[in-house]
């Protein structure tokens, strides 16, 4: 770019007063520019809505009188770049639509600062408590139903996440959907009339959109810690309904996060354990940097940090704050975490059923029928009931069914032989010795 052509940046903000009887009142971009004393736009990757803040000169106090902002007012903002990447080139960056969320005044400068948030009109999405039971729904289905209620579009990127049964108990739709996404390892944000739900792991694996060298960093800080980071996680849950205990371990090593969460299946336990440990491990290596604006970089993208030796590497962009001063200086503050190998699979998945938790070690034997020794792995013919628990409970009636012994309990159990339809498969039930015969 020609060094004699200065870079210029400005913001175009349109302000729309809330509807009243008799029409609407609009402040066009040209009028807003006359009062603009500073602008910032914050773009978070997950868990928050986008926000804007504009500071307005208020010497004549009109922003505290006839023009005083009120809840329900709307703002639309875009950033205009001139000769930023190429002399004479003009580009615009659309920030989105926002509802007035915050208002403050300061003196003696008599300034007015307006804050806006990218959520639907009204307060229902964020503040009205609702109750509902969701059964056998997927995350995408829940997101789509909530989005439709507020006339939003759903943008979903990721695999199918089965939720089982979940309760929304007098909780606002915004906080409820955010919590469900976080519980199952998905990211969520509200942006420009859309609910965006995505798999952060998929986004971390994408190619970096930019490389930032040491000379590009106007200001920066780096932090690494082991506190609150883990090499794995363990989740255990016992169902009061059927006395079923599930244990799931993801990852390995000495720093294991113990999680107390209600789950309905080992698959759900695996998703929740991975989600929790990966979220905690994002704190392991973090950076905060300030750079000259580069609108290829957005929250949810990745960047390469180069030239800082062992501090260098691939980083995920957790938040971007765009700042434009009255003189047109345009910078971006980035909050980053270093991309690490994410834990995605279980190393241990166990399910016990019955009143006692103890399960015999592999190869243990109980007293078999006279003259017939049975061991784990044996192929058997099952005639009789296969109980849900080692001491009884609900049962499935079996008639000449070919199965395999998967576990043998100690003498304290009434039904000592765990059987499955295939060798090494999921246990079908527990049988007494009188129901089994070697095949």
Structure write-up:
By secondary structure, the protein is mainly β. Helices cover 12% and strands 48% of the residues. It is built from six helices and 27 strands. The chain has helices spanning 29-35, 124-127, 139-149, 173-183, 200-204, 266-281; strands at 8-16, 26-27, 36-44, 51-57, 74-82, 90-106, 111-117, 129-138, 153-157, 162-172, 186-191, 194-199, 210-213, 219-224, 232-238, 244-251, 256-259, 285-292, 302-306, 313-324, 330-338, 346-353, 379-389, 392-408, 417-420, 427-431, 436-438. The strands form five sheets. Strands 1, 2, 3, 4, 5, 6, 7, 13, 14, 18, 19, 20 and 21 form a 13-stranded mixed β-sheet that branches. It is elongated and about 95 Å long.
How many helices? The count is: 6
Report the structural category.
mainly beta
Summarize model confidence as the mean pLDDT: 86
Describe the global form.
Answer: elongated
Low-confidence stretches: 355-371
Q: Strand tally, please? A: 27
Distance between the amino and carboxyl termini: 82 Å
Strand content: over 45%
Classify the helix fraction into a percent range: 10-25%
Rg, rounded, reads: 30 Å
Tell me briefly what this model is.
By secondary structure, the protein is mostly beta strands. The chain has 6 helices and 27 strands. Mean pLDDT is 86; it is low at 355-371.
């Amino acid at each position: 770019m020609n060094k004699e052509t200065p870079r210029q940046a400005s913001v175009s903000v349109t302000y729309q007063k809330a509807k009243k009887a008799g029409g609407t009142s609009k402040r066009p971009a040209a009028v807003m520019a006359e009062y603009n004393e500073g602008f910032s736009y914050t773009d978070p990757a997950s868990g928050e809505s986008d926000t804007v803040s504009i500071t307005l000169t208020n010497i004549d106090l009109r922003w505290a009188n006839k023009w005083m902002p009120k809840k329900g007012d709307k703002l639309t903002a875009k950033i205009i770049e001139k000769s930023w990447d190429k002399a004479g080139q003009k580009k615009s960056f659309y920030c989105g639509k926002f509802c007035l969320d915050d208002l403050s005044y300061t003196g003696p400068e008599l300034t007015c600062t307006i804050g806006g948030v990218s959520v639907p009109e009204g307060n229902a999405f964020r503040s009205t408590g609702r109750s509902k039971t969701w059964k056998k729904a997927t995350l995408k289905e829940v997101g789509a139903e909530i989005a439709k209620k507020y006339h939003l579009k759903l943008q979903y990127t990721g695999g199918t996440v089965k939720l089982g049964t979940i309760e929304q108990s007098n909780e606002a739709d915004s906080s409820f959907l955010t919590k469900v996404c976080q519980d199952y390892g998905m990211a969520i944000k509200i942006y420009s009339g859309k609910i965006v739900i995505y798999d952060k792991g998929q986004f971390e694996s994408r190619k970096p959109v930019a490389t930032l060298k040491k000379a590009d960093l106007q200001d920066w800080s780096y932090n690494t810690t082991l506190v609150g980071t883990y090499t794995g996680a363990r989740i255990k849950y016992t169902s009061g309904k059927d006395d079923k205990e599930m244990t799931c371990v993801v990852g390995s090593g000495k720093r294991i996060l113990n999680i107390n969460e209600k789950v309905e299946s080992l698959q759900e336990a695996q998703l929740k354990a991975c989600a929790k440990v990966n979220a905690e491990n994002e704190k392991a290596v973090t950076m905060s940097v300030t750079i000259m604006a580069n609108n290829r970089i957005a929250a949810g993208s990745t960047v390469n940090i180069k030239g800082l030796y062992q501090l260098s590497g691939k980083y995920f962009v957790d938040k971007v704050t765009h700042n434009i001063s009255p003189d047109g200086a345009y910078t971006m503050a980035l909050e980053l975490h270093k991309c690490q190998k994410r834990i995605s699979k279980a190393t241990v998945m166990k399910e016990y059923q019955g009143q006692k938790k103890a399960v015999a070690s592999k190869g243990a034997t109980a007293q078999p029928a006279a003259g017939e020794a049975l061991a784990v792995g044996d192929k058997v013919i099952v005639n009789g009931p296969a109980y849900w628990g080692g001491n009884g409970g609900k049962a499935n009636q079996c008639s000449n069914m070919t199965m395999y012994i998967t576990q043998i309990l100690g003498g304290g159990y009434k039904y000592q032989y765990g059987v499955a339809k295939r060798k090494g498969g999921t246990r079908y039930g527990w049988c007494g010795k009188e129901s089994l015969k070697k095949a």
